[in-house]
Amino acid sequence: MAKIQPRSFKGTRDFTPREMIPREALIDSIKSVFRLYGFSPLETPALEMLEVLSGKYGDEGEKLLYKLDYKNDKPRDRVALRYDLTVPLARVVASNPDWPMPFKRYQVQPVWRADKPQPHQGRFREFYQCDVDTIGAPEGIADAEIIALTVQMIRGLGFDEGDRTAVVQLNHRKLLEGLCTFAGLKKEQLSGFTRILDKLDKIGRDAVFKELGDLGVTDNHLEALGEVLAIDNTNVETLQALRERLAGIETAQEGIDSLFAILDYLSHLDVPVEAVNINPNLARGLDYYTGAVFETTLPRQPHIGSLTGGGRYDELIALYSGRDLPAVGTTIGLDRIFAAMEQLGMVDTGVGSVTRALIAAYSKEEIPAALNVLKAFRAAGLPSELFPTAGKLKKPFSYADKQGIPFVAVIGPDEAADPQNLKVSLKQLAKSEQAVVTVAEAIATMLDE
Amino acid sequence: MAKIQPRSFKGTRDFTPREMIPREALIDSIKSVFRLYGFSPLETPALEMLEVLSGKYGDEGEKLLYKLDYKNDKPRDRVALRYDLTVPLARVVASNPDWPMPFKRYQVQPVWRADKPQPHQGRFREFYQCDVDTIGAPEGIADAEIIALTVQMIRGLGFDEGDRTAVVQLNHRKLLEGLCTFAGLKKEQLSGFTRILDKLDKIGRDAVFKELGDLGVTDNHLEALGEVLAIDNTNVETLQALRERLAGIETAQEGIDSLFAILDYLSHLDVPVEAVNINPNLARGLDYYTGAVFETTLPRQPHIGSLTGGGRYDELIALYSGRDLPAVGTTIGLDRIFAAMEQLGMVDTGVGSVTRALIAAYSKEEIPAALNVLKAFRAAGLPSELFPTAGKLKKPFSYADKQGIPFVAVIGPDEAADPQNLKVSLKQLAKSEQAVVTVAEAIATMLDE
Fold first, then answer.
1. In which domain, by residue range, is B345 found?
2. Could you point out which of A140, A248, B258, B333 has its C-alpha 20 to 30 Å from the C-alpha of A225?
3. CB contact under 8 A, B14 and A92
4. Each residue's pLDDT tens digit in chain B (449 positions)?
């Protein structure tokens, strides 16, 4: 066996303990909110039949499928790595026609894209997706629930005040359809219209209006549209103003009704009014949305993109499974949220170990006593370890310092003298003092911290 | 888009909520023990450079690598799915020469093998591995810690009494080497000797002895070996008997010394004496073990294979990383443990949802009140959901019954009459009674259950 060249595949990442410790805490926190809202875990395999994945992601997506080099395959037996979590969800629902509805699931698993990686811009070939969806529930409560869950999840992470306040931007596909009509465009142009509108944050109003002009929107219509899109008031006032300006456009009125209903549900769930913003500019690129669409943004951190994004897609699952199953859900942008938390100082990646207490034996003679102390620390729920070699106390202290372990408990002949009453010399690395205390006192001090 | 043929790749599995709910509980429980022992999480990508994986698993393993069909690759840029978690660990350690030692990590991720799947025998193409290893610590405490962790983990899952008692079988490579000498074989024959011994459980003593005879062990030697392997007493007595019988064989004496030391460490960690069994028959197939080897078995369920398996491998990481890094660790057989728990009735796969309380509105008028109740249930920490359509109470009750949701709270006009004092008609599905109670009373009842 030759020495490994420690080379990784570009666009993939190791998550070392320094990243994994806060990352696991983040994922656990998100999962606990999913569960509180009655969503249950699902996992699907990384490998799916190519025919299940093929033709679902458009020409661009098709090129990004990682296929296996598996000899002697019949074409219909070819296999690829999953591209997202939505098609696997559709396959699972289609495979289980006897499941009661609604089916509420969350799923946190990696996906793969054979893309040019740009790690510095957060584009990877292997990355986690974190999806939560309700299948088989009509528009209304289920949509409000996904939004309420998003608010509780994101605020619970600390995006709840000052410069790091998160807001869910909310719009409705039918309101967008109405705006398309209002702009003098035909229904067939809706897809192009929303795609242009979606770029507002990136390229600005003037560039968007130029593109809309190119699409065929007249100057008069552009002026009127500009006024409507500029409406920015309390949610209820915004919707009322839109209702007046878009009078006579039926789809727009239906969308506005839906948004009023969702706002009403949200108020009964005590979602703070300021946590949701009706935003007629919000388009979201994907064609498959049919109702409410939403994104979480940090309005005071415009350089950080949206942290979550989702909406209602009533036709997608039906197309896949052959059953009429309306659906609503959202993707939680794990990597984006983690990066935002790092950038805003909300997460600590300076700790290389889960250990709270490192025990160091002064010499081999104290190892039995050290193991007894170790046992007592663990029985109190404190993650602990014994430095594997006795003596040379500089080594365990240096190890604890580098790993970010907060406490070192040294056991020498004096501390171990009475086996019925073991003591330790406890040092909190962030402070200068060191004190000889009983094991019970050491535990109390560490649990207190 | 055509309807998906809901076909999965053979040898892969969906984990539906019914499996995922107990599976996540199992994994969380295992992780919490890892952390208590000071092991920190690591994740590595599914995709590794082929040159990193190649030549590490022998000829058989080489054929089982899933390679990507990635056009225009230079041979050295080829990529494959990871085969285990040990080589990625070695790559990570080699990539981070500045890390302080010991490096204690756990890792719970899927691996892939291009094998003929035999799902009914538990052989899959995609399955989870769950590894815990200490890199950079010499023989002794670190070995005892891995064994103590195994005992605490497995007993904590309920494998601690009667027919489901788990026992860690413990042996030492050097003792095996000594037995090989004792059997009159040469050192070069050790690998063949242990491979035959490893089959004792599967093919029985007579067949093993026949194969040993074929390897060149004389009848006299076989008789003596048979007597030694039959020694089965308390651990200390077994080791003492082995010490006498193998007098003069230096490697055997070294192995016995090591095992005495590990037993001593375990006693100071209060590991129950009966939880560990010195077993000179235990061989474990892999050639890379250099010291202690161990497996967890259920002695009264011989048809269930070993639940964990590991040992010391002092040369493997050094070969990969170029640094002298002794190591010890174990694999926790997640699938095997889960299957054993199912078989012994220790796990409930009858629940399709995490939801504790399903709220049902008698008609649309009660939806605002129902949302208020939902909010109150969640504030109390109870996973809850509102059935998405009001009316037709048969539907939510049938849904709760199928999903295994224990409580249904119905809100009709009477229950919603006083918004300041909302009530629900609470039914516990496992019992027949239904009672109108306040929201606070309902919460207390459900938290009590």
1. 13-166+298-352
2. A140
3. yes
4. 455 567 899 999 999 999 999 999 999 999 999 999 999 999 999 999 998 888 777 777 888 999 998 766 677 789 999 999 999 999 999 889 999 999 999 999 999 999 888 888 778 999 999 999 999 999 999 999 999 999 999 999 999 999 999 999 999 999 999 999 999 999 899 988 988 988 887 888 899 999 999 999 999 999 999 999 988 899 999 999 999 999 999 999 999 999 999 999 999 999 999 999 999 989 876 678 999 999 999 999 988 889 999 999 998 888 777 888 999 999 999 999 999 999 999 999 889 999 999 999 999 999 999 999 999 999 999 999 999 999 889 999 999 999 999 999 999 999 999 999 999 999 999 998 899 999 999 999 999 98
Number of A to B CB contacts under 8 A, please give it.
285
pTM: 0.94
Closest chain B CA to residue A78: B9
Last residue of a domain, one of A309, A343, A377: A343
Residues 6+ apart with CB under 8 A from B418: none
Q: Do A150 and A134 form a contact (C-beta atoms < 8 A)? A: no
Residue B109, judged by CB atoms within 10 A of its CB (0-12, 13-18, 19+), counts as middle
Interface test with A, best of B36, B56, B335, B439 (most A CBs within 10 A): B36
Does the residue A350 lie in any domain? no
We report the CATH number of the domain holding residue A314 as 3.30.930.10
ipTM of the complex: 0.93
